[in-house]
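Re: duplicated header lines in exported structure tokens

Our pipeline writes sequence and tokens for each protein into one text file. With two proteins the header for the second block appears twice in some exports. Here is an export where it did not happen, for reference. First protein block:
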Amino acid sequence: MGIDTTLRALWIEIRDRLAARQLLRGAGAGVSLRIPGSGELWFGAAADEAPRRLADVPLHTALYAARPDVGAIAVGGGVFGACLADFGGRMPEVFDEQARHLGRMGPAVRSTESFVTSLRAGGNALLVDGVTVCLGTTGSRLALNAELFEKCAKAYVLAAAAGGPVKPLPWWVRHIANGRLRKDQGRAAARLAQGLLPEESRGY
């Protein structure tokens, strides 16, 4: 099975999974998968039955250009991810799994010119004009990241709204987890540059 066939089938699987969990909400919601070695992507809106192979989808293309390790993007998250716009537009690293797979969340942005700064720390989630954008090295990792982000956002938003203290993880825990994430991203970037699909990250 070729990469195109694999990615087209994977797109449908990811779209269905995220839509079933109400993680593709709002105008502009959609999923894309980078096609290694081609400069193109499989893209479709949340309501599409199948993706299209395209050379340029403005928001997605700009994100791929800013992050050579990213193989998949979902725009339009869940209710609690969107609520972060009312709490500063970003979420501290509060949970172990969040630090390991989502990394440090950059500030919310309003234009593609701001992506490079916001994504510099290697985070896999951000708000763009109040809309959740999740990234992943692979399609499967993207789906997991989107689900993880909404779960963490729910816990954080409810705690912050109740006025309770929300403390980030100790610095050394974040340092180790972020370091492992950066290694995954480095390997993914190398594979994509070679025209290959990234390998799935395993374990913590």
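Second protein block, exported in the same file:
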Amino acid sequence: MSGDATETVDIVDAADAEQSLRVEVLQLKRAMETRPVIDLARGVLMASFGLNPEEAWSVLVTVSQKANIKLFHLAEGTVAAVTGEPLPEPLRQHLSAAVADLAALRSAPRESEP
């Protein structure tokens, strides 16, 4: 490659790296903004259904995927439900089903048990 071609490639690589960093910074900012509400929703599920932190996270992710709703919006609705704002019926049904599925898994005998 000639010197000019190498310099052009370096400039393009630098621009790509800068763009990647900008995207990453925006994603991290968004995560910092949404994480507190998601953690509150986990706490609500833990207190309401006796779940541990991992189970509460699993329920939120499952409901988010099945209901095709962003996790943050589900978390907002879950936290708002504590103050009397009802969750939409489809979300309530998905949430109930996810918690019931988890409870069934908990009570199912393990393969190592007789």
